[in-house]
Amino acid sequence: MIFASDLDRTLIYSKKAMGEAFGSTEVIPVELYQGEHISFMSPETARLLIELSKTALFVPVTTRTIEQYERIFYIRETFKPKYAVTSNGGNVLIDGVPDPHWQRHVAEALTRSENAEKVIEAFDRISSPDWVKSYRHSDSLFYSIILERENMPLDVVEDFRKELADMRWNLSVQGRKMYLVPDGVSKGDGLLHVKALAGASRIAASGDSLLDESLLKAADYAIVPRHGEIYAAYMEAGLYTFTDRDGMGAAEDLIAKIADWFALPAEEEASESPKMR
Questions:
Q1: What is the rounded CA–CA span in Å between residue 205 and residue 213?
Q2: 3-state class of 273 per DSSP?
Q3: What CATH number should be reported for the domain holding residue 177?
Q4: What sign has the CA pseudo-torsion 155, 160, 166, 168?
Q5: How distant, in Å, are the alpha carbons of 39, 90, 149 from that of 234?
Q6: Got the DSSP string for 221-269?
Q7: Which of 88, 190, 230, 274 has the fewest Cβ atoms nearer than 10 Å?
Q8: The model's pTM
């Protein structure tokens, strides 16, 4: 059994994202950056995840680069994940080391999308210092762009999203960041590679952004926090199962529900585990 989960705004939260209910309570620091703790987990989330990890293989799945993922010391030291999917699926780590077989697979898949230089040239035609602060080509796989979110022209960005689709690239906006990601870099594909490596039969997954949809679709059971891009896009469509709470409380809800699903007899899982309703 595998529990595959996105990290930021799914299991771990910045001070701004954790929610009012946790603003004045004790939380566990999980990430250290430039001498400061910048991401946190609730004690109940940690307890539930430790319990779940006794019976299921916990696989962190993140858009973060390898370097950014390694800053999350709590997950590395507490859970010592055998496998992790980073760089939005561009890298699969085995005991912390990138799998060269997967890197070759991704390199071949990238040839089917438009060249990265042409994509950023197209983005430069719509960008402005009014709303774009900086960008970088993360792990030489996708673009990570820092935004002034309140100044972002929504209609221009939506038109650009359609232009990107013709290039076989995707666009996702999460908080103050925009990601431009080629089709060949997919969390779901990375997870399925881990499933094969581990010889696992069942997957439960969670995530909050549109970049997590491939992850959710690769799972047998999926649950989404009551916040973020997927919730905003589908909250009235009845397609996904959402947690009862938003913010840091969503992490507690989703692990509890996934533990309940893993505990079901196999014949009951089929009726209880639609990824989308």
A1: 10
A2: coil
A3: 3.90.1070
A4: negative
A5: 27, 26, 21
A6: EEEB-SSHHHHHHHTTTT-B-B-SS-THHHHHHHHHHHHHHHHS-HHHH
A7: 274
A8: 0.90
Q: What are the tokens at 38?
A: 């910048």
37 and 101 fall within a common domain: yes
* C-alpha of 84 from chain center: 12
**Closest to 17 measured CA to CA, from 38, 32, 47, 43:** 38
Residue type (1 letter), 197: L
Q: Of 138, 162, 182, which residue is a domain's last? A: 182
- Stretch (H or E) spanning 206: strand 203-206
Query: CB burial class (10 A; 0-12, 13-18, 19+) of residue 85?
Result: buried
Amino acid type, 214: S
Please state the domain count of the chain: 2
Shared domain check, 70 and 54: yes
pLDDT digits (tens, 9 = 90+) for 154-164: 999 999 999 99
Distance CA 234, CA 229 (A): 9
Asked which of 144, 164, 182 is the last residue of a domain, the reply is 182
In 10 A of CB 18, how many CB atoms?
22
Q: In this predicted model, what pLDDT tens digit does every residue of 180-238 receive, in sequence order?
A: 999 999 999 999 999 999 999 999 999 999 999 999 999 999 999 999 999 998 988 88
Q: pLDDT class for 268, splitting at 50, 70, 90?
A: low
User: Are 202 and 217 contained in the same domain?
Assistant: yes
Angstrom distance (rounded) from CA 79 to CA 51? 11
